[in-house]
Amino acid sequence: METDDKTILLVDDSEDDVALTQRALKKNNIGNRMFVARDGREALDYLFGRGDDEGDKDNNNKRRRMPSVIFLDINMPKMNGFEVLKRIRADERTRLLPVLILTTSDEEKDLREGYRLGANSYICKPLDFSQFCEAVKLMGVYWLMLNEFPSGI
After folding, report:
1. Stated pTM of the model
2. Which residues pair with 34 in a beta bridge?
3. 96 near 104, Cβ under 8 Å?
4. H-helix segments, the chain
5. What is the CA angle 148-100-47, rounded to 5?
């Protein structure tokens, strides 16, 4: 798989949260390519190139590239974010990818579980849009501009 140093994989089942994240990225002039997975299974299909080969050819081509960063919600249907994170960390191809848990849960048990499973960061989604925009800006600047990645991921 080829590394794409500009792609964000957003894994979130909430249409409102996806739209909010897209709006916050745009407001902060973060124009990186983003692929949205609506549940955990779709995220793993994207990462590991599985899925319907007869589907959208553009998305199938994107499946052959690794994102620079994954924004991962934990409360989703089909497969929750913790299970997705376990599978990401268990596979040599994705083990080193930065995974930021971006969730509404401020539960201590979720925070601990996220870090135990190998999350690089755990961010509670602020309810206020201006605070959310600032959080997205900081995430984008750090993970897409400042952070150094080893080659091959």
Report:
1. 0.86
2. 8
3. no
4. 15-27, 40-48, 57-62, 81-90, 108-116, 129-140
5. 85
